[in-house]
Amino acid sequence: EIVMTQSPATLSVSPGERATLSCRASQNIYSNLAWYQQKPGQAPRLLIYGSSTRATGIPARFSGSGFGTEFTLTISSLQSEDFAVYYCQQYNKWPPITFGQGTRLEV
Amino acid sequence: EVQLVESGGGLVQPGGSLRLSCAVSGFTISGNYLSWVRQAPGKGLEWVSLIHIAGDTYYADSVEGRFIISRDNSKNSLYLQMSSLRGDDTAVYYCATSRGYYSPFDYWGQGALVTVAS
Prior knowledge:
By secondary structure, chain A is mostly beta strands. In chain A, 0% of the residues lie in helices and 48% in strands. The radius of gyration of chain A is 13 Å and the shape is globular. Chain B is globular. Chains A and B meet through strand 4, strand 5 and strand 10 of A and strand 5 of B.
């Protein structure tokens, strides 16, 4: 099983600032990594796939990077609606499909 | 517009059974992989099961032998038959779609709450 580890667990930032979230895979997953945003009471929403490709309708302030085992989600200038929980997920080798434990982005 | 709508959640006693459904509209499921992902209260996301386009099925170890995933392409729907339910199965269950083996979950339902308690 590929274990996904996200850091930090909680990130405190202010609106307008830049946020950098990290995700590490326990083995090489190439670029088969996705990021999801989840707000309270809502389903997750796909933000990034293929490590760096934004999903349809996702603003350009969201960017992803990385390859192999180290990945980063960057939000360039935080808007109020960006405060949420973010999950990474690998789909390189499954079953099982595995998620990170999440990073909570808070004010 | 793509929509996935889960139904069938509720309160069930330990050891009981429940069947979740996911009705899909806006695209044809026959060409997609379909999954169930769950989220225990206050916890992260856990993949539960996937059914391949060809009908092959895959399960998390935690539900293997207790849950059965199925699909009905004629009804554009996905199902999860859950049996021998335990307290740690309590969660919101989401259905989600992906386009292939190396694909993320691109569409999600709104979730169905399953509570296992006496």
